Every structure is written in C-alpha cells, then in structure tokens.
Write the structure tokens for this entry.
Amino acid sequence: MIITETTVREQIVATADRLFYAQGYNLTGINQIVEEAGVAKASLYYHFPSKEDLCVAYLQRRAEKWSAKLQKFLTGTNDPRECIIKCFECRSEYLIENNYSGCSYIRIIAEMPQRSKKINQRAILNKEGQRRFFIEKVKELKNTSGISTVDLANIIFLLFDGSTMQSQVYRDIAPVKNAIKALKVLI
Amino acid sequence: MIITETTVREQIVATADRLFYAQGYNLTGINQIVEEAGVAKASLYYHFPSKEDLCVAYLQRRAEKWSAKLQKFLTGTNDPRECIIKCFECRSEYLIENNYSGCSYIRIIAEMPQRSKKINQRAILNKEGQRRFFIEKVKELKNTSGISTVDLANIIFLLFDGSTMQSQVYRDIAPVKNAIKALKVLI
Amino acid sequence: MIITETTVREQIVATADRLFYAQGYNLTGINQIVEEAGVAKASLYYHFPSKEDLCVAYLQRRAEKWSAKLQKFLTGTNDPRECIIKCFECRSEYLIENNYSGCSYIRIIAEMPQRSKKINQRAILNKEGQRRFFIEKVKELKNTSGISTVDLANIIFLLFDGSTMQSQVYRDIAPVKNAIKALKVLI
Amino acid sequence: MIITETTVREQIVATADRLFYAQGYNLTGINQIVEEAGVAKASLYYHFPSKEDLCVAYLQRRAEKWSAKLQKFLTGTNDPRECIIKCFECRSEYLIENNYSGCSYIRIIAEMPQRSKKINQRAILNKEGQRRFFIEKVKELKNTSGISTVDLANIIFLLFDGSTMQSQVYRDIAPVKNAIKALKVLI
DNA sequence: TATGAATGAGCATTCATTCAT
DNA sequence: AATGAATGAATGCTCATTCAT
C-alpha cells in the first residue's frame, strides 16, 4: 500500500522534526523518536543510514516549512521594503507558533562545533538562501543610505539572525520588534 | 592544603571550560573532563553537585574572560562611539582566538531549550550585562538618529549577537565587520 | 528465465563464499552479502531459508574448489607417496592463494561450538572425505613403518589439519613445509 | 572491602572465560556476560575498556589454566620422552573436562581473521610458549630420527594442534590418541 | 522469481551519578 | 579533600528474518 509505505518514513521525519526542534538534537535519542513515531528502530535505520542523515532531513523540512510560511506571508506584497519587513513579521509569528525555538540551523551549529560535512553543507545552503532573499529585495530598493547593496543586505541578515536567537533566549518577540525598528531606519 | 584544594577545582573548571566551549556541552562527557583534568571523577562531584553546576561555573568563567579582554581593549578610550566600535573589534579578536566558537551563552541555550533554572539565570544575567553596557554607552552618545536610546542599544545588541553567531556559522569574522559597518551608519 | 535465476543464486553463493572465508561467518552480516552481491535481501531468503543454509552452500563450494584444485595437482601422479606429498604442496598453494584463511570447515566449528545439525553433517562429511583420501593412498603404499594403515592415515590427517591451522595462525606456509618433512620420515 | 573489590573483576573474567570458551567469542554478548556474572554493564567497562580487552584477559586465563594443569601432570616426570607424551595425555584430559572446546587461541584466530593487534600478540605469545616447551624437551632427547631438533619439535607441535582441533570437530579424544601413536614412532 | 519495506531483539559502548573508604 | 569502584539507564546502531506485492 503506497499510503503505508509513505507513512513510516514521513512519520519518522515528522517526529524527529518535532523533537529535535523542541529538545535539541543531542538531547533527543533515537529511542524516543521511534517510540513516539510508533515505528521499529530498524525501520528508521532503513530509511536513514544514521542519526546525522535524519538530521539533514530535519533541517530540510524546517527550511521548507519556513519557506512555505514566508511565501504565504508575502503573497500580494510587491514593495521590496514591505517584503523585508513582512519577513521579520513572519519570523515573529513563526517563533510564537514554535514556542520560541529559534533557528534550527543556527542551533545545530551551536550544538555541534565540529559539525559533519553533510550537516554543514545543508546549513550553509539554507543560510545562503536567506541571505540571497535579502540581497534580492535590497536590490529592488531605492537605496539612498550610502551603504552598498550587499552590505545593507548583510546587515539586515545580521538583524534577522540576531533577533531570532535573542527571541529564543528571552522567549519573547521583543527582539524581532527591535529589529523591525532598525529596518525602518535603515531602509 | 588550600593550594591543592584550589588547584583541583581550578583544574576541573579550566578543563570543562575548554571542552564545553570547543565541543559543546552535551557532547562533552564527565569522563573526558576528569581524564583530561587528571582528577578523579568523585573529586569533580565533590566540587560540583552535578554537570549542570559545572556548566554554570563554565559560563561564569567565560563571562570573566570576555570582560577582562574587553576592559583591556577599552583602556584609554573615552569616546562612547569609539567604545562601542571597539567592543565589536574586541569580539572579532576573541572569536579568532577561540576558533570561532561563538557565544557560550547563546550556545548553551541553543543546546538546552528547556534549560534549567540555574543555567537560565546565569545566561540571562550575562546577556543583560552586555545589554547594559550598550545602553550606558548609547546614553553618553549625542543620539541624533531619531531612535530612542534603549531602542538603539537594543539594535546594537542584536548586531552583536547576530554577528557573533554568524561568525561561528561561517568560521569567519566578516559578519562582525558588517556589524561595524552598520554601527557607522547608526551612531 | 532460468539464466537469471541461476545467476542470482550463484552471485549470492559466490559473495557469501568470499566474505565468510575472508572475514568469518559470524562477522559477516546478511546485509553485507546482499549489498556486495547486488541482490535484494528477500532474494537471498528465497534461495536460502536461513543464513545457516547459506553457510552449508558455502562449505560445499569450498570443498569443490579444493577438490578441483587437488585433482589438477595430482594429474599424472600415480605413486601414492608422491600423491600424499603433492596433497600437502597443493595445500600450501591453496593457502597462499587464499590469504592464509585456513580450513573453512575447521573454522566454522571453531566459531560455532554448538553447531547446527546441517552444518555439522556437512563438516563431518568433508572431513571424512579428506581422511578417506589419505586412507586410500596409504593402502597403496608398501607400509613398512609398523603402524597400521588406518593409524598412519590418521596421523597424516592430523599433520594436514595441524599445518593448515598453524599456517593461518602464523600467516606463513612454514607449518606445511614441516608437515612435509614429517611425511618424508613416516612414509 | 578487598574481597568485594577483587570479586567483581574476577567474576567478570571467570564468566567471560566460561562463555567465550563454550560458545565462541562472537556468539557471546556483553549482555550475557554481565547478566551471568551478576554485575552492572558499566562495571565491566570500568575494568575492561572493550570486549577485545576482555578477550585478551580470557586468553591469558586459559593459558594459565592449561599451564597449571600441565605442571601438575608433569610433576615427578623427568624423562623428556615421557614428558612429551604426558603433555598429550594432559591435553586429552583437558579436552574431556572442557567439553571438547579445543584450543582457545586457535579458535579466536579462526573467528577473527583480521584479528586485532592485542589479540594477535597474546595468541602468538601463547603459541610460541607451547612450541618452546616442545623444543626444550626434544633437545633433551637422544634424537636418532635423522630430523633436526627444531624440525622434530615443530612436527610434534603440529600433531598437538591438529589433534586438539580434530578432537573438537569429532567431540572425541581419538585424534589425541592417534597423535600419541605418532609420537611413539617419532621419538 | 524477485524485491522494497518493515520488524523485534540484540549489539558494544557511554552516560551522569553515587558509594565506601 | 580526594578517590577507586560500582551502577542503572540510555546511547547510536546492526542483527537475521519476514511480509506484502
């Protein structure tokens, strides 16, 4: 049955996503994942050669969830300045919805300083995707700030990561609001 | 003998500091600490009731190291604008010296989302200390940006954490340089 | 298609033979066999009800390989004394060719003390075949040693197994050479 | 209490010895050992860094048991020829007492073709000890066989290992008896 | 005949912590 | 103040086997 077939793998990723994001990667054991996913341990290892590979799938999934949410948020908005601000507002909502769990990518890197190649690749890929988004939007702006386009985008990116991280620290969206205040000065 | 007593405790904290910061808290086992510190496991538990308490000592030690470094960096500088920029330059140096290991506080929170009271307290204490530093310096500025003093300090703080974190991600100080570029526009 | 059918089975046995002999039976997993054989796990279990049955096929294959090699070695030799010595020389060559992996039968028994009936049967069958070879050759000898024919054959058989085993231990054919020296005294 | 302290380690080695020898190294799990020894798993790993190290202790123990038995067997015998024969008779008794489990060293090598350095060292050490025993005794003989002393010792050694191994295969001491028959011709 | 997917039981090893001395 | 020894629980992962198709 195709339904069942899809379900086991999907169930594993969904559970891993939930637990890794809520508890952290290292504090979440394979045991807990398979238990809560309701599958056999060997089934997990059939689909994912190692916990690390499951982590990559988790990170990918997080990126997709965020992308989908952002896309929906931006629908109908054309003004680049508005888009950038909406991106931060979207972040705010995302953080509230996800119990202030911060950025999955940044957290993985914080957890695993000597991170594996697979995970590092996936993380950099995502971060660069975010940076590209800001660069594209800034390019569309009439940039009168005297800062170069790329520099401005990078600064916005710093505010994005900084506020995401601080919102986890304080379990509050105030840092994101502060970042938006900065945006209103910068762009 | 007080000398010996101090030495063992000190040896434990120094080793824990090194390993927690380099490898991450969860990836560093008590075994490795006592082995590399050259002390008995039970000695560690004599001085620290739990790994968590050792973690608090580690965080405190990190804060002290950073403070000392910053103080030295700021010696002779009176201009608040200069002080803030120097703080970021100090960060840059700190990150290079410490193999781009980022901020110990942020990393602990990234690792342990449901963090313990002790650790949480210690982390917030440190973060608030950093924020206070920026607030004080901004107060001394002739702030003509149209943003309130506290808001401006908070934005600088966002750039501080954002650039610290991104420098760990990219293993490069470019993000700190970008933050300094932002400072030069904002203050 | 019969061709395909034979090929898959053959591929499985060939791979199992190679791995069991090189790595040992217990250290070789079904996973590795099917991977290196390039077949599905369920295909293996279609042809062999269990790992044990695959082991029996492996042992049989080893016996056939040895027999074929010995037969070629003995071609043209009629003198029974010469035949026995050639058998040891053949062993020497076999061990070198097979990276000093010893006797598959003896190793299986060393690995599985409470061996299964199937495997035991197959092993004893082979060992008795080897003993019979020596008995037949000794019968053809003008035995003037004062030892009975069967006893003499059994002693030669001891030298055969002893030297095969020791050559694995030392990864050297010296033990086989020593056995041949003994033969030259005994027969 | 010294008694308790000694007991745990001793209990572990004794159990490992019994199980490794009876069931084989690879077929005996750490779980079974700690269960039957009545100790915690972590206690085993406190005393032995790995299963491999436990294996080395097992091999050493086997050697000591055999040595002690042989020594007792040889007490009062001075004639070297008699000593060699008694060594085989001792083997016969040893095999019966130990349920025809063969030679622990040879079996370990049969199980682990790519054996570890530690285990290999220990195994070779033991085998060379056995060979030395035969060499020493043969030197004391009035050797009139026309074979060199070392060659003769090596041949006896082949008979020793061959008969030990075959007695495991057949679960019978007949092979050892055959070896003794050979001795009576050779020396 | 062949296979992709699933499984329960087991693997060797490490975890943070505690106890007796 | 310091330690060697002991522990229960959990770690990530692999085992031989089976099922549905």
User: Anything to note?
Assistant: The radius of gyration of chain D is 18 Å. Chains D and B do not touch (no CB pair under 8 Å). Residues 1, 29-31, 41-42, 45, 50-51 of chain D lie near DNA strand E (CB under 10 Å from a C1').
